Amino acid sequence: MSTYRIKFKLSSFYEDEKYNLEKIVVHEIDAEDLEELEEIVDDSGYMESINESPVINKDTDSYPNYINIDYIEIKNEEGDILYEEQDEYSSHLLSKTVH
Questions:
Q1: How many whole angstroms separate alpha carbon 81 and alpha carbon 98?
Q2: 88 DSSP 8-state letter
Q3: The pTM is what?
């Protein structure tokens, strides 16, 4: 079993764009290999369990129209980058959008 470090980008989108926020959070997940890691993150509801509060803007009473969570980097135990988002159009991401 290996421990992978996954960097997630959380983004909130408000009606008034000035309240939009973006934060990076890092989680460590144990998995046998990348295939199992993908199953854990994509299929098990893991994305739904990520705390969204870092992108809830306290300067407004409004709730975001939606919150998006993407993984943007995966590293193995040695710190080698196994996946890195190049840009929003050239990479495949596991993502969750909350409406």
A1: 28
A2: T
A3: 0.81
Indicate the Cα dihedral angle 55, 58, 60, 63, nearest 10°: 40
DSSP result, 28-64: EEEESSHHHHHIIIIISSTGGGS--GGGS-TT-SSPP
Number of domains in the chain: 1
Measured CA to CA, the distance from residue 99 to residue 66 in angstroms comes to 5
Render pLDDT for 41-89 as a digit per residue (tens, 0 to 9). Answer: 987 789 889 999 999 999 999 999 999 999 899 999 999 999 988 765 4
The domain in which residue 53 lies consists of 2-98
Backbone angles phi, psi at 34, to 5 degrees: -65, -35
Q: Which two tokens stand for residue 18?
A: 């000035």
Give buried/exposed letters for 23-39 (b at 16+ CB in 10 A, else e).
Answer: eeeeeeeebeeeeebee
Res 65: pLDDT: 97
